[in-house]
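Hi there,

I know you've been waiting on this one. I reran it after we fixed the sequence typo, so this is the corrected version. Both the input and the resulting structure follow.
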Amino acid sequence: MTILKIFLFLIIIGIIFVFIEPIKRILLYKILNGRIALKTYEILIFIIIVLFVFNFGKIINTSKNIIFKENLKKIATIELSNYIDLKNFKNDQPIFKIDSNLLIHAGNRLLCFDENGNNIWSREVHSEETSIANMKENTIIFDNLKGDFAIINKDNEVINNGKTNIEIEKVKTSNQNVYIKPKNKNEIVILNKNLKNIGKIKTKNATIINFIPEKITSNVYVYTTSIHSNKLKSYLYIYDENGVIIGSSDIDSSIVFDMIIDANINIICDNKIITFTKDAKLIADNNKVGNITITKAIGNRLYSIISNNGDKIKKSLKVFNENLEELASLPIPLKPKGMEVNKNKLIIYSDNKINIIKKPISSKSKSYTLNIENDDKKEKIIDIKWLSSKSFYVKKETKIIIYETN
């Protein structure tokens, strides 16, 4: 990558030096003779030089993108129409990673592919409303209406099945447990890995808005709202894996849009961020962030896409530490639809382009914008997720594409 950049730079410098002599001749003719008596090829060279100078920035950016694109390798394209009727495909159906394989819920089927896009197995899902949950190496298929379930391993073998007797609204998992939010009930039912009931979370006089189980500890972070004296109140509660409360904190009257768990608990509001420790102790409260559209966390760093001074079109990427101190700010050269972060890189994507930024990110960081699948501009990007430190998938309307970066 660095060698290619140096090579490009030397070519540009060489072109400039090659054109110096014609420039000098043009100026000399004009000064001495009061006229320009040039050959056709010299006039053409002069026009090229002018165009080059006025488009120098675009030329450099295009060259960078070409160089970077050579290091973006397409590994596989999975055409979903080869496996399902696309009429049954919903854009919000999930994709899971199991070891190095992809498990795709597409239409009324569950499809498993290896990292090279080869189909390993498929299974029909019969329920009209289905939830798919992943727990370590196993996958759980739920019938949302009846509460029936089947647990299958990575080889597509059913290792357990049964009934929960719950009409399911939402399912989430940790490494050890399954957490179900029943429809029209203000509670969370806790099941072990064999889908046996081991506990329940209930919040008094407060509505559960969102909950996130921590993968390793199985602690559950619950965000609730309630009305007190005609005022909206928001709270953060922490429960252990048996549903016993172990911490809580008042989030005042803020409207919470997202809750992100990594090294800390990050509460994302419309125009501010609040961070807590894992035992619900306040770390920082920054109400001068701006209008937040997307936020991701990895370790003790937060990455937020923020509107500039209320401008809904121009947006920037800002990086914060756990004390919510701004570490970097970068302009975003596309209309952001989503963002994904891993330990090495950050991807921001629009309907048909992605912007890749290498970490660590500073205000001087360079980003590379490139088109995805130029031969298919009608298909929009639905979602992007990292599969490893180097590879990621792009979910489109009828296909899934796997890429690898350098």
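Quick highlight: The mean pLDDT is 82.

Best,
R. S.
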